[in-house]
Design a protein that fits this description.
Number of strands: 9
GO molecular function, one term: methyltransferase activity
Radius of gyration: 18 Å
InterPro entries: SAM-dependent_MTases_sf (IPR029063)
Shape: globular
Keywords: Methyltransferase, Transferase
GO biological process, one term: methylation
Mean pLDDT: 94
Strand content: 15-25%
Strand order of the largest sheet: 3-2-1-4-5-6-7-9-8
CATH superfamily of the largest domain: Vaccinia Virus protein VP39
CATH class of the largest domain: Alpha Beta
Protein name: Class I SAM-dependent methyltransferase
Number of domains: 2
Distance between the termini: 8 Å
């Protein structure tokens, strides 16, 4: 991809800042399940929440959820708007929860490299060509074996998606998977999640792209699973996931995750065609 994030300090552009309590509950739940071991084994359990918005509620919630896995976790919320940092200050709980001025350069007060970076609803306002540069900056700040979770969701967090990105052996971003998430009882057609795909994929939902194939196969499998509807949306979704597997989609995770309305697909199966 072409393009780059302008090298300023802090690096980035102010987001709209909208947020709601529990908006990021679904991705946080996935982070705890998927990266809980990483957090438990970390010598320095630093986690960064990049671009938390006009109110720090989702950063506070992130700390609460991660502390259940690692009580001494240190969560740092970063914003490039000084007014937002000042507004968050009353919610600090040193040394466990702090807020600071920063962007894609990911400064960590007190030092250290984050084992996890959550960047949600941050890149939506950027051009697709800027994603790789942003990912590169972020994974460059990760601790060894660390992970970047970058994605987007709707205003209430009931529909969303995210990419699990690591640092490859060459230092470049190495995306591992795409996770799609729905509140199951809200599903009319699963492809509605396309409007909340990460920036790297949202403009790729067109013929000839693999993510477009996924959206089509999701809707077709959901339609074929209509006979399960009397037993509830969960049973219909489980049948939909099983259908996708039989058609060769590399579905990750377990039945427990699917029951929660999560579908994780290996990145190679959905990566942009060029």
């Amino acid at each position: 991809m072409a393009g780059a994030i302008r090298a300023t300090r802090p690096v980035g552009t102010v987001t709209r800042g909208t947020t709601n309590p529990n908006r990021l509950r679904r991705v946080d739940r996935w982070v705890v399940h998927t990266h809980g071991r990483l957090l438990r084994n970390a010598a320095d359990p630093v986690v960064v929440d990049l671009g938390y918005g006009a109110h720090p509620v989702t950063t506070v919630e992130l700390h609460t959820r991660l502390a259940a896995v690692r009580p001494d976790v240190r969560v740092v919320g970063l914003e490039i708007d000084q007014a937002r940092v000042a507004a968050a200050a009353p919610h600090e709980d040193p040394p466990h929860l702090a807020f600071a001025l920063g962007g894609f350069e990911v400064p960590v007060p007190g030092g250290g490299s984050p084992v996890l970076i959550r960047a949600f609803n941050v890149l939506r306002q950027y051009d697709e060509g800027q994603v790789e540069a942003a990912w590169s900056r972020l994974v460059g700040r990760l601790a060894p074996d660390g992970a970047l979770v970058e994605g987007t969701c709707n205003e209430l967090g009931r529909l969303g998606s995210w990419v699990d990105v690591r640092r490859g052996v060459d230092g470049r971003p190495d995306p591992r998977s795409l996770t799609l998430s729905w509140r199951l009882r809200d599903i009319e057609t699963p492809s509605a999640v396309a409007e909340r795909l990460p920036k790297v994929l949202i403009h790729r939902n067109v013929p000839g792209e693999r993510v477009h194939d996924l959206m089509g196969d999701l809707d077709a499998a959901w339609a074929r699973a209509a006979g399960h509807a009397p037993y509830g949306a969960r049973q219909r979704f489980l049948a939909t996931v099983a259908d996708l597997q039989t058609r060769g989609w590399p579905v990750l995770g377990t039945r427990h995750r699917w029951r929660l309305g999560e579908l994780e697909i290996a990145w190679a199966a959905v990566a942009p065609a060029d």
